[in-house]
Amino acid sequence: xxxxxxxxxxxxxxxxxxxxxxxxxxxxxxxxxxxxxxxxxxxxxxxxxxxxxxxxxxxxxxxxxxxxxxxxxxxxxxxxxxxxxxxxxxxxxxxxxxxxxxxxxxxxxxxxxxxxxxxxxxxxxxxxxxxxxxxxxxxxxxxxxxxxxxxxxxxxxxxxxxxxxxxxxxxxxxxxxxxxxxxxxxxxxxxxxxxxxxxxxxxxxxxxxxxxxx
Amino acid sequence: xxxxxxxxxxxxxxxxxxxxxxxxxxxxxxxxxxxxxxxxxxxxxxxxxxxxxxxxxxxxxxxxxxxxxxxxxxxxxxxxxxxxxxxxxxxxxxxxxxxxxxxxxxxxxxxxxxxxxxxxxxxxxxxxxxxxxxxxxxxxxxxxxxxxxxxxxxxxxxxxxxxxxxxxxxxxxxxxxxxxxxxxxxxxxxxxxxxxxxxxxxxxxxxxxxxxxxxxxxxxxxxxxxxxxxxxxxxxxxxxxxxxxxxxxxxxxxxxxxxxxxxx
Lengths: 214, 264
What we know:
By secondary structure, chain A is α/β, with parallel strands linked by helices. Chain A has helices spanning 51-58, 80-86, 109-117, 134-146, 164-179, 191-197; strands at 17-24, 31-36, 40-45, 65-70, 73-74, 87-90, 152-156, 183-187, 200-205, 208-210.
């Protein structure tokens, strides 16, 4: 089992940012790493390496051992829904609980502003969800998540259905929230995107990080 | 007026109807003939046996004997309520939640009925308590079973939608709320249909029975009104309890959706 070097001790966690400590389940981990506020950790690895498993454990969506701290406060010490409101997980295939986009977000200035940044036409708000393209749904899910002003974003292939130009727009949105102090964990298959976005990089294989920090 | 009694010829006619249905199933390749035969034989045996047992139990006025019969009925309902869902919880929870919800809903309305409206003397009198419990138990069991079935079959399909709410900071109650409400609504549709149709499209069972047994139709209708109200209340309690308990079992204290609690 190869782990990242200098795995931090439980107990010392970042005062601002995400600190993962001894996070594991039966299939992946243990993981221990930090993502400072305003930084982006890019995780790469083959399909099935455990990238989504890691993000889901960090969002406390799957049972796990170990803990994650945000700004020095541990997930286990607060109620799960308050944790998820601050540490927002954006799955590769976002879910929708109704066919109307407006059931998921109000049509207000904030939504309009985020939509414009994501290159979404205003009309999508009134379209049924099932008629939107995969790329539109992906960006709407991002808008939906960013409306919460999360302190950390866990993004699973957020640009997998986007063309080059739109991908750059989404990356600009990510830099915006990073400038506001949000930590991002980005799972990406796109090597160029990893180079553009990464402050930190890790590679996952068979449920464990391989190689050294960069 | 005395009730009209049925003779052997009538029984043979009933059997002939079942044989007709079996033949139709074979001709139309419905594939339900085996189930139908088993169900028919089972139904006949159960009813004859029940008739005999009730004849015996009514003969002696023993509260223990009455309770024994009721206990048997509740056990059978617990088994049946959980028998027909395709998606299931692990057995202990599945039958536990189904049985508990059915029993709770039934017991509450049976006691309401026996202690207020019907007031037999003594209140546990077998001739009233057993048929009444049976009637309500069957209805509550249906509603509970439908409620669990709707929730269990939808939860896997709606997984992404439920998690989408969780991801955005909803509690498990908020995330599963619409599923719970839909399960309860679905469970109550047959009862609502029955109430809407009562007297106009169908003559409800109790009223029919009372009339055939010689009761004045207006008195029979009052009887039916009280029983229908007890039925719908019991169904509501059973369906609501089972939906809430099932959804609680499919999530955990950390607000996660736990589809791993479904039986594989």
